[in-house]
Design goal:
The structure holds three protein chains of three kinds.
Chain A: H1 3-6, H2 13-39, H3 44-70, H4 78-95, H5 99-121, H6 126-146, E1 156-157, E2 163-164, E3 167-168, H7 172-195, H8 197-207, H9 209-214, H10 219-240, H11 242-245, E4 247-248, H12 255-268, H13 275-290, H14 294-311, H15 316-332
Antiparallel strand pairs in A: 1-4, 2-3
Helix pairs in contact in A: 2-7, 3-7, 3-10, 3-12, 3-13, 4-5, 4-10, 5-10, 7-8, 8-10, 12-13
Chain B: E1 4-15, E2 18-29, E3 33-37, H1 44-51, E4 59-64, E5 67-68, H2 74-79, E6 82-84, H3 97-104, H4 113-117, H5 121-140, H6 156-168, E7 174-178, H7 186-199, E8 204-208, H8 212-218, E9 221-226, E10 229-234, H9 236-241, H10 243-249
Parallel strand pairs in B: 3-8, 3-9, 6-7, 7-8
Antiparallel strand pairs in B: 1-2, 1-4, 4-5, 9-10
Chain C: H1 2-32, H2 39-55, H3 60-86, H4 92-113, E1 129-132, E2 135-138, H5 139-161, H6 163-173, H7 175-180, H8 185-211, H9 217-232, H10 237-257, H11 263-277, H12 279-288
Antiparallel strand pairs in C: 1-2
The chains are: A mainly alpha, B alpha/beta, C mainly alpha.
């Protein structure tokens, strides 16, 4: 997990190369986004899909704050995604507010809801936390089905104007560039989080909660901070799905959405900052190009995940690292 | 401060119907290296956890460094100068030696995520202080050349030294070592004993250990526990010669 | 009053069905220390296997044991290839993800092979209603209750009396102690996994005709089973049976007297409440295992 130190300056030569590496990755990301934005040749469908993929990547990053950061499986994270999608929809359709205001409201609400939820549930770990988390999203989904403000089972649609300031998200290219820019911003923030005191506390807790506590880390408080940080990011992702879906239904809170994000994070690598984003791209683009039936996609990716968990729990890149390590061992002879 | 690093009186612990500790008294003077021995199931680990604030006692008084550890959350106890190593999960195995020390310096750092992003002075100072401290600790523990090795790849004895190094980052006033030399070979044990003597200056150290040679070499006094109660508290030689202790160890491994 | 009694009877019968699913889940947790998120998928497999075997010409009563065998065989294959390697004694989040992925894969496979739409599972009891003391009960429900009670009683007896059953109990109470006393713990774990899966398959075969077969039919049931198992204490078989009856009754009463459309949330609310209010009983074991 070299990422953790690359965030530090280390006061020495490696510090310079680390921040250079960070800047290089960022430049690479921007270049990739620009190339994709113009390279997709203005195909509106692909651009829309690419924009949606950026949103999904943000959700995978949010899920990975819990998964890679704390080692918990937040099955119910789709609830925050759903809050983020419903908030602008409700703000536009019921209150006549602009999209941006709805997005902001959704993020604030997600954080405000995450705090008491975390306070109640983060004493639980492992399967217990996952079940409660899943349960809360189940309740949220039934609630959305039964309320009038959420449009019941039909959901909300027919939005007025999906735009961020001067950028009109109904134009596929604009949608993609805005989503990609937000994705990069989220990546930068999470990169610095990981290199910060808080990020290291999370990593320490993931590897050994008892040891972390004996080092003076308030395990519960840091876990709570992680949830409150990841919830608004998930909400942002949910809001960014609107230009693509044009509708919000209770299905948005289906646990399958979390599972998709978990799969993306696991394929890309939970220990890497950008792993979940890469996984999200693989997860949405590949089936598109292979023209896979959604169910074949679920089947293939589920089996892939099982393979990853059995062979390389840190993500596919681990297989690679293991192969590379074996090669260099063989070359060096006996390593210490 | 009273001159006592640990003052415990009548410490009891019950789990449901099982009594793990039956009124243990313990006093450890500041700066001492104190041993805690007894057969398996004697309640040493429970007492250990109580002294570190991880487990709360069912009865009795426990004061460590003048703190009522029973009334404080474990992380508060740790922040106020109480360190401990674990038998298992003693280090952060997925990370390098240096990262282990970074995790450990959590309590000495103050910067926020925003300050990290802006590379603000607060962050620079934290990192510079960390480098200085980490270098000193690595030197003390003989780990300087292993700084970029993953913890999981270290030899067993070296991992135990890393566990101590992790705790030293916070400069604890009292350090609890849970069976530190268990599973070490003779050379590693000798090295470790030298390390403990070295870091004991200006610190109180409490060791739970089955290796009587290590206890004899390090400790000025040992508390012998059997069945959740103390049998005797004396110098290692005299404690081990005590008839009750001999009886308790008889048939187990009294001679090791 | 009549409505109340009718509701209570329905609740008890529902509870008997839940008990099968929950006992399977709790046996797996007790010995393997994993929460099997794929349990609902095996429930669905049980119903689909019954349906397909019936289509091949077998009568319902013969299709049930054959379907259970099929599900057990699939469970065996998964145990030998995946569960054994990935899950035992490894980190908890691995087992959650792997069992969840297994469940997704099974549901997707069902949709691809059989299709997404609900299909009726024929049963000779299907259309008949029996009047007992003035209350009407569908014969299928009576059959579910009778079969569940018989199987559970047989299972409880087997656990007490047989050597293997005793070994399962020993492993679930203290795996290390069991290992030291010469029990083949990996074998017992595999056996428990198979039994748990088979119980889920049987429950699916029994409940299929009542709720018809659809790919995600296991979800609602496994949620209830979580509640039941957590309520009864994870790993406790008697607790699971008792919990199932309580939840069955609760569900029936809520559906009749409060709201049908909010009933799906009831299971979730219960599972959350139980976990939040009684964590010490559940957490005790999990935390002792760490350090």
């Amino acid at each position: 997990m070299t990422d953790i130190t690359t965030g530090a300056p280390a006061g020495r030569a490696r510090g310079g190369s680390a921040s250079l590496k960070g800047a290089g990755l960022l430049a690479l990301g921007i270049a990739a986004a620009l190339a994709a934005g113009f390279g997709l040749g203005g195909d509106p469908f692909l651009l829309n899909l690419a924009g949606y993929t950026c949103g999904f990547a943000i959700f995978a990053l949010s899920v990975n704050v819990m998964l890679g950061g704390l080692g918990e499986v937040p099955l119910g994270h789709c609830m925050f995604y759903g809050i983020g999608a419903y908030a602008p929809a409700m703000a536009m359709n019921h209150a006549g507010l602009p999209y941006e205001a709805g997005v902001a409201i959704g993020m604030v609400v997600a954080a405000l809801i995450a705090a008491p939820i975390g306070w109640l549930t983060l004493h639980l770990t492992g399967a217990y936390f996952s079940i409660v988390s899943w349960g809360l999203s189940g309740v949220a989904m039934v609630t959305a089905l039964n309320l009038d403000v959420t449009g019941g089972p039909l959901g909300l649609f027919g939005f007025s104007r999906l735009a961020v300031g001067p950028f009109d998200l109904s134009r596929p290219q604009t949608y993609f560039f805005v989503a990609a820019a937000i994705l990069l911003a989220v990546l930068v923030v999470l990169y610095h989080v990981r290199g910060s005191r808080f990020g290291r506390a999370m990593e320490a807790i993931r590897q050994g909660p008892h040891l972390a506590r004996s080092l003076g880390i308030d395990v519960f408080r840091e876990r709570l901070k992680a949830l409150v940080l990841s919830a608004p990011i998930a909400a942002l992702a949910g809001a960014l799905s609107l230009p693509y879906t044009q509708i919000v239904t209770p299905e948005v809170m289906s646990v399958l959405r979390t599972v998709d994000a978990l799969l993306a994070a696991l394929i890309g690598g939970v220990g890497l900052i950008f792993g979940p984003a890469v996984g999200a791209v693989i997860f949405t683009i590949l089936p598109q190009f292979l023209d896979l039936d959604p169910n074949v996609k679920v089947l293939v990716f589920s089996l892939l995940i099982i393979l990853v968990m059995v062979a390389a729990p840190g993500g596919l890149h681990q297989l690679w690292k293991a192969a590379a390590a074996r090669l260099s061992h063989a070359r060096k002879g006996d390593a210490p | 401060m009273t001159g006592w690093a640990v003052e415990a009186a009548g410490v009891e612990k019950r789990y449901g119907g099982v009594t793990a500790l039956k009124g243990v008294d313990l006093r450890i003077p500041e700066g001492a290296i104190h041993g805690l021995i007894g057969p398996n199931g004697a309640g040493k680990s429970t007492l250990f956890d109580i002294l570190c604030g991880i487990t709360k006692p069912s009865g009795g008084r426990v004061s460590v460094l003048g703190m009522d550890v029973a009334a404080l959350p474990a992380h508060h106890v740790a922040r106020r100068g109480v360190g401990r190593t674990f038998q298992r999960t003693a280090t952060f195995r997925d990370s390098t030696v240096r990262e282990n020390l970074l995790f450990a310096s959590y309590g000495r750092m103050r910067h926020s995520v925003l300050q990290r992003m802006a590379r603000a002075p607060a962050w620079r100072e934290d990192m510079a202080a960390f480098e200085t401290r980490a270098d000193a600790v690595l030197e003390t523990c003989g780990l300087a050349h292993l700084s970029d090795q993953p913890a999981a790849a270290l030899a067993y004895g070296t991992q135990r030294r890393l566990a101590v190094a992790v705790m030293l980052m916070n400069d604890p006033k009292i350090l609890f070592l849970d069976e530190p030399v268990a599973g070490m070979n003779d050379a590693e044990t000798a090295e470790f004993i030298a390390l403990v003597r070295d870091i004991a200056r200006g610190r109180t150290i409490v060791i739970v250990e089955h290796d009587m040679a290590a206890i004899g070499a390090l400790c000025s006094e040992v508390l012998v526990m059997v069945d959740g109660a103390q049998v005797v508290s004396d110098t290692p030689e005299r404690a081990l010669a005590h008839p009750d202790v001999v009886a308790a160890y008889l048939g187990t491994d009294a001679d090791d | 009053m009549d409505l109340l009694i009718q509701t209570l009877i329905n609740g008890l019968i529902l509870g008997a069905g839940y008990a099968l699913v929950a006992v399977g889940l709790t046996v797996i947790f007790g010995t393997l220390h994993i929460v099997n998120f794929a349990h609902g998928a095996f429930f669905a497999l049980g119903a689909y296997a019954t349906l397909l075997i019936e289509r091949a010409g077998a009568p319902y009563l013969l299709a049930i044991p054959l379907a259970v065998l099929c599900v057990a065989a699939i469970g065996f294959a998964l145990e030998a290839t995946i569960v054994r390697r990935a899950l035992y004694d490894q980190g908890e989040h691995g087992s959650i993800i792997v069992t969840f992925a297994i469940s997704q894969a099974i549901v997707a496979a069902i949709i691809l092979v059989v299709g997404p739409d609900p299909l009726p599972v024929p049963s000779p009891f299907g259309q008949t209603a029996v009047s007992v003391g003035g209350f009407f009960l569908s014969a299928q429900r009576i059959f579910i209750a009778a079969a569940s009670v018989a199987v559970l009683a047989g299972f409880a007896l087997w656990l007490r009396r047989s050597v293997k059953g005793q070994q399962i109990l020993a492993v679930s109470q203290n795996a290390r102690g069991a290992l030291y006393s010469g029990i083949n713990v990996p074998l017992i774990r595999s056996l428990s996994f198979l039994l748990g899966i088979a119980a889920a398959g049987l429950a699916g075969a029994l409940m299929g005709p009542m709720i018809s077969a659809f790919p995600t039919m296991g979800d609602a049931n496994v949620i209830v089973a979580f509640t039941v198992v957590i309520l009864g204490g994870l790993g406790s078989i008697g607790g699971a049976m008792l919990g199932a009856l309580v939840i069955g009754l609760g569900n029936a009463l809520f559906e009749t007297y409060v709201s049908v459309s909010w009933t799906p949330a009831l299971g979730w609310v219960l599972v959350i409440l139980v976990l939040l209010l009684r964590p010490q009983g559940l957490m005790g074991r999990a935390q002792l295992d760490r350090h």
